[in-house]
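seq as requested:
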Amino acid sequence: MQKRLPWKLRPADFNQPDWHTRPTVAYELMFEYLRLSPSYELARKASQEGLTEEDKKKLPSDFEKVLKTYDLLGDVQKILFRFWWIERGLKVFGNPYKKPKVHLITDIKVGKELAAKDVQSDLDGYLEGTRIEEGLERTLLLALPVGLKKTEYKKQIEKILTELQDETEQETQSRIRLHGQRLRAPVLFKGLRLLWFKAAKPKWAAWRLGAHSRFSDSYSKELDVTSTRRLDRESTEIYDRLMMTKITTRALKKYEAIAENAARGKFPCEDPVEQADFNYPALAKRIKSKNTWEANIKKKLQAEQS
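struct tokens:
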């Protein structure tokens, strides 16, 4: 019986203890688009290496949004998707099984003076255990003096909750969720392939790039990507090259925007965005480094499995 490769997703990965979500290829697509986003790469550098003065000149004005996404989703270059999904993705996109409830963190006895360090262990147990299990929902740490009437507790707590209600609703709406009701996965895969080819051949004319990546079902098959001949004005291929150029140019802008919106936690989304510059030669080096790392880690995992 053939062993299951450790990096291959399985149904159980979407339905683990305390967490669940609907299986969809959208998460893997977002993961791959994040790998191509120049803004997300700058967030990685800011977190792991520090930004150079030249890097700082490239930062979009909404870079704080990218950093927030990075805080949630982390490095996507040196990790296989399945392990990233288990470590990060499921907890960001999934729903907690356990319904949050009120917890007693510690009981401070009457007349006892305490410092923060005296309750640190109890607080850590809640923050690093129970709260994570309940989905990291917004939580209030309250001091409840024992001895008040129940009506007084209710009155004071309701006042605090009412004051925070509007802000809490806004936070709930801003959590990372997939955009749209219908995912057009084949179209998004086409976009990924186009960006990969652009990185591999940054100096190619747009028509040649689009034809080689088979981006257009209509025009790609009509064009010879190896052709270097000049065309006379009567050639029908002039029109095909022109149309392929327009299609490819528009598509590059669209899928660059999708990658950059993913870096802001919006996927799939092609809204206009102040994106960092796509330096394709630099992107090609990043892709090559990532591919080499992936090949080596898969080889190592297979060896461990034998």
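Confidence is low (pLDDT under 50) at residues 168-174.
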